[in-house]
Amino acid sequence: MTVETPDVLVVGAGPAGLAAADAARKAGAQVVLLDAAGDAGGQYWRHLPAQRPAADERILHHGWDRFTALRGQEVLTDAQVWLAERHDDRPPTLHVLVGPADGRDRVRRTFAPKALVLATGAYERTLPFPGWDLPGVFTAGAAQALAKAERIAVGRRVLVAGAGPFLLPVASSLLRTGAGVVAVLEANGWPRLAKAWSRRPAELLATRHKAGELAGYLRDLARHRIPYRAATAVVAAHGTDRVTSVTVARLDDRWAPISGTAREVAVDAVCVSHGFVPRVELAVSAGCGLDAYGAVVTDHDGRTTVPGVYAAGEITGIGGADLALAEGVVAGLAAAGGSASEVQRRQRTENQRFATRLEAAHGIRPGWTGWLGDDTLVCRCEEVTAGDLRAGAEATGSRGLRSLKLSTRAGLGVCQGRVCGRTVEELLHRHTGGLLDPGRTESRPLAAFVRLGELAAAEEKEPL
Amino acid sequence: MTTTGPAGLEPHRDPVRPRPAASITLVVDGVPVPGVDGQTVAGVLMGAGRLTWRTTRHGRPRGVFCGIGVCHDCLVTVNGLPDVRACQRRAADGDTISTEEQA
Ligand SMILES: Cc1cc2nc3c(=O)[nH]c(=O)nc-3n(C[C@H](O)[C@H](O)[C@H](O)COP(=O)(O)OP(=O)(O)OC[C@H]3O[C@@H](n4cnc5c(N)ncnc54)[C@H](O)[C@@H]3O)c2cc1C
Ligand code: FES
């Protein structure tokens, strides 16, 4: 089997990976940039496929000119990295399948790069609530992806709820895709939001591009008279085979629902997001160290704890696209053997301050478990409820996350705990009075679902 | 036209001003379903107003949840191959989609 050995391999063609590959190329490196998706852009610049051109697509986007400049480079698309094979003294060997998603005849490619930049981004964290598995309940990111890349609105009367500034672009995209938005609900109250966002205002000037973007979304809400309610959450969804209404309640500052404040709202779709989780499985396989939030630890050049492996974008912490771009430039230059200028480094630091505020203003608070019922599903794949988790912990008396997952099946389904893993871990932590092996949720030997038949067929053709 | 559930935006009402695109047809459980070239399988199904296409072991209906390939709620069988994420697989004209045999 031929092993390709580029100077720099960049995994992920979102804002961070695009910027990293571009910077590394400009520094003279021979670069391969790849992405599992059918197109470059990542989550932020998810867009219509080439087969569906549109005259004014930029109205769905920010920084579109930056994207059109970056997307000109060569990108290997439909390329799923499924395994990072670790070495002690150099970057891992990456195993890649290229072809239609989940297909059976994909082409197998192997890369042993001199330097590796991981820019795999993040996925959403959605907290469970009664009825959250009813059809018509979506992650906010799903609504965003369907609006931007398919021009499909998830419903006609849509409620957007959860925590964080990301709820705002989702509402704007829904409006531009023909949906009615009932309201946007933010779990955090005004005191917390104001404290985090109004402190040291001069600091925010450096990230005024981001502030301008957010102001635009708020104008959209005002123009359509859509209420933005703080300290409020969807605490249940109702319906038989699809959502027809939700219960909305006020929250206290720990996110516990306040009794007597519940009211029912008719909807045909709900879009929920409580934050993001860095997508670290390749980094973990490569041996990179993680911080307390489960993000990859990097130094000021984007170096991880493994020699020759760099990381940029939301895999290193949740901070938005501008930070991802700034980190990409710095990491790409370092991976190519160069180093960033003072200005480039400053852009990274300034945008990191925005990320710190994001967590201070919108991070998940523990009172949310107050809206769980015993029969609320926690693990969607294996259909394990909150009550099953408590009973499992009580019955076995175990304080081991691994053994409790095995006995309850929570987090062991086909999504490998990507949707419920952190929630399962938090709930078990409380039921057991403290887990003995916390933080194992992010460790997955395979970065993607692969068919054994596909690998066997590839091996027959070319022995390993 | 139904007034609830998912819906594709008609091109003449779309503010991004789409240019003409080729149409495709999928055969979903034996029934032809029209779509636009470049859409995912999930996009075609939802554009046709469909919200779910799978049931769990406990009989709960499922369709798209995460929309980005993470949750595996949206699995379908494409041209006889099971366990394909409908939100990630680009639809090809004439693809046969079966929603019945998914676990
Ligand atoms: C669904 C969703 C929608 C979002 N929409 C917005 C928005 O509209 N506005 C906003 O401000 N923020 C949005 N965000 C937040 C967003 O994560 C960041 O702002 C920005 O996209 C981060 O850039 P990134 O380059 O770090 O990662 P991403 O943009 O997430 O890019 C990571 C890329 O890595 C690829 N990848 C991951 N693993 C592998 C693998 N194993 N093999 C091959 N490729 C892989 C992915 O396909 C992806 O394209 C969204 C997040 C999500 C999850
Ligand atoms: S909707 Fe989650 S994987 Fe397709």
TrEMBL record, chain A:
<dbReference type="Pfam" id="PF07992">
    <property type="entry name" value="Pyr_redox_2"/>
</dbReference>
<protein>
    <submittedName>
        <fullName>NAD(P)/FAD-dependent oxidoreductase</fullName>
    </submittedName>
</protein>
<dbReference type="InterPro" id="IPR007419">
    <property type="entry name" value="BFD-like_2Fe2S-bd_dom"/>
</dbReference>
<dbReference type="InterPro" id="IPR051691">
    <property type="entry name" value="Metab_Enz_Cyan_OpOx_G3PDH"/>
</dbReference>
<feature type="domain" description="FAD/NAD(P)-binding">
    <location>
        <begin position="7"/>
        <end position="327"/>
    </location>
</feature>
<dbReference type="InterPro" id="IPR023753">
    <property type="entry name" value="FAD/NAD-binding_dom"/>
</dbReference>
<feature type="domain" description="BFD-like [2Fe-2S]-binding">
    <location>
        <begin position="377"/>
        <end position="429"/>
    </location>
</feature>
<keyword id="KW-0560">Oxidoreductase</keyword>
<dbReference type="Pfam" id="PF04324">
    <property type="entry name" value="Fer2_BFD"/>
</dbReference>
<dbReference type="InterPro" id="IPR041854">
    <property type="entry name" value="BFD-like_2Fe2S-bd_dom_sf"/>
</dbReference>
<dbReference type="InterPro" id="IPR017224">
    <property type="entry name" value="Opine_Oxase_asu/HCN_bsu"/>
</dbReference>
<dbReference type="InterPro" id="IPR036188">
    <property type="entry name" value="FAD/NAD-bd_sf"/>
</dbReference>
TrEMBL record, chain B:
<keyword id="KW-0560">Oxidoreductase</keyword>
<dbReference type="InterPro" id="IPR042204">
    <property type="entry name" value="2Fe-2S-bd_N"/>
</dbReference>
<dbReference type="Pfam" id="PF13510">
    <property type="entry name" value="Fer2_4"/>
</dbReference>
<dbReference type="InterPro" id="IPR036010">
    <property type="entry name" value="2Fe-2S_ferredoxin-like_sf"/>
</dbReference>
<protein>
    <submittedName>
        <fullName>(2Fe-2S)-binding protein</fullName>
    </submittedName>
</protein>
